[in-house]
Amino acid sequence: NEILQKIDELQNNISTKNGIVDAILNKFYVEACEKGIAFKVDGHMPDVCYIEAYDLCSIFSNILSNSIEASESCSKKEIHVELNNSEDEIIITISNYYDSVIHIKNDEIQTTKSDKSMHGWGIKNIQDSVKKYNGYMDINTEEQLFYITILLENIPKETL
């Protein structure tokens, strides 16, 4: 209720045609605005989405939480969410600027937080969701811009 109240106050509801994704994006939109971070969403989810709510939450919440954290300490405070879909695929691309160093080991991003046993699980959860939908995840950096692109098969569960 508190999040919805803040969203109403800002008069800028994000609509992607998916209630779960809308709720997550609007929550992070409010948080980004409070922290002076520009938050832009382009595109929408498919009319019929076969991705379970848990997996949508895992993917969007983990990525956007990390994006906001990176943007807070960055001189260029921008997050861009891009949603595309076809008959049987969903493509999610989220980008943000960063000022820190990204540590990669064995093709995986490593947490820079001091308590390593309590952090770094977000990317693993995203990978599990991507795998569940025969998907693909690609992470790139270019001139202090971090991109994560996720492709998911959007087909009925019985066929997965």
Summarize the helices and strands and which ones pair or pack:
Elements: H1 2-10, H2 19-34, E1 38-43, H3 53-72, E2 78-85, E3 89-97, E4 103-105, E5 108-110, H4 121-132, E6 136-142, E7 145-153
Parallel strand pairs: 1-2
Antiparallel strand pairs: 2-3, 3-7, 4-5, 6-7
Structure characterization notes:
By secondary structure, this protein is α+β, with helices and mostly antiparallel strands. Helices cover 36% and strands 28% of the residues. The protein has four helices and seven strands. It has helices at 2-10, 19-34, 53-72, 121-132; strands at 38-43, 78-85, 89-97, 103-105, 108-110, 136-142, 145-153. A five-stranded mixed sheet has the order 1-2-3-7-6, with helices on one face. Strands 4-5 form a two-stranded antiparallel sheet. Strand 2 and strand 3 form a beta hairpin. It is globular. It starts with a helix and ends in a 7-residue tail after the last strand.
